Amino acid sequence: MTQAKQTVIFFDLDGTLMVNPFDRAVWPVVLGEIAAKSGLDEGEIFKLLVAESAARQRDESSSPVLSMDWDDITQTIAARLGISLEAHVESLVRENVAISSILDNGADVLRELNARHRALVVATKGLAKYQIPVLAALGLMPLFAAALTPDTHHALKKHRAFFGDWPDRTRLQIMVGDMYDDDVQYPAGHGFKTVWKRPNLDSRLAAKDPFARALLYPYADNQAVQADAIIQSLQELPAVVRRLEQAVLGFSD
Ligand SMILES: [Mg+2]
Q1: Could you read off the pLDDT of 113-171 as tens digits, one per residue?
Q2: 202 C-alpha to center of ligand 1: Å?
Q3: Do residues 144 and 167 make contact, with C-beta atoms less than 8 angstroms apart?
Q4: Euclidean distance between CA atoms 129 and 93, whole angstroms
Q5: Considering only CA atoms, which of 133, 173, 138, 137 is closest in space to residue 149?
Q6: Which of 20, 119, 124, 189 could disulfide-link to 5, CB 3.0 to 4.6 Å?
Q7: pLDDT tens for residues 159-202?
Q8: Torsion of CA 235, 237, 243, 245, to 10 degrees
Q9: 105 by DSSP, 3-state: which?
Q10: Which of 88, 97, 118 is nearest to 11 (CA)?
C-alpha cells in the first residue's frame, strides 16, 4: 500500500513550467494558411480563434473539451470564413515538440519537491493530445503522479470537478501557475493555497519574500482574491511549499 499523500501540488504548464510549440511552430502555419486563403490579417484571425475558445468556455452548455480543442476551433473559424484548412494543430504540435523547453530548470525543482508525502500533479487547461506529447518529449512525465487536462474529468480548470478526488484525498492543495483567473482566483475558491508566478516584478516587490509580495502586489480592481505567495521563478517554489506545509500540516521535509 502506498503512503497517503498529505500535500498535492497542482502545476500549470504553459508559462509556468514549459514553453510549448504553439507560438513558434503551430500558429504561424495555421494563421498563415487561413490568411492566405481568406485575405484576413493574421492578428485578426488569431483574435477570432481566441474569441471562439473564450465563448465556448463561458458557455456552460458547451463541452469543456471542445472549448480547448484547437483543431475543432480552427476548422470552425475556417468554415465560417468559407475556406478549407489543411493545417492540423495536433500534428503540428507532435512534429515540433523538439522546440519545446522547460522553464526555470523546472525538472530539478520537481525532483527537489519529490517526497513520500507529496503528489505532484499536472493541472493544465490544454487538452491531453496537445500537452502530453510535449511533457513526454521534455522528459517530465515520470516526475508527475498524474496529469489533469479538460478531457480527464470533462471539466475546465475553473471547475472543482477538474481536480477529481485529489482534494478529498489530501490535507493541503497548492496550485502553482501564471494566470490570475485559472491559477489564483478559481483554485482559491476551491480552498487551495495559490502560488502565482509573475516573472517580471518591479524591484521593490522582487526584494520581498514570496508571501510578502502576495500581500503588497498591486492587484487590479477585478482581482479580488490575493494569492498566498508570488514567485518570480520556480526556483523559489520549494521554500514556499515548505512554509505552507509547516503552517497547514505542522511538518514538511
Ligand atoms: Mg499558464
Answers
A1: 999 999 999 999 999 999 999 999 999 999 999 999 999 999 999 999 999 999 999 99
A2: 20
A3: no
A4: 9
A5: 133
A6: 119
A7: 999 999 999 999 999 999 999 999 999 999 999 999 999 999 99
A8: -140
A9: coil
A10: 118
CA 36–ligand 1 middle distance (angstroms): 30
**Which residue has 525532483 as its cell numbers?**
111
What is the rounded radius of gyration, in angstroms, for the C-alpha atoms of the chain?
19
Same domain, 32 and 70: yes
Strands 118-123 and 146-148: parallel
Same domain for 13 and 73, yes or no, is no
Nearest to 191 by CA among 168, 216, 218: 168
Q: Give the separation between CA 195 and CA 241, rounded to whole angstroms.
A: 9
Residue 142 sits in which domain range?
7-20+100-248
Tell me how far the alpha carbon of residue 195 lies from the centroid of ligand 1, in angstroms: 12
Distance 84 CA to ligand 1 centre (A): 30
Cα–ligand 1 centroid distance for 186 (angstroms): 14
Domain tally for the chain? 2
Phi and psi at residue 148, in whole multiples of 5°? -95, 130
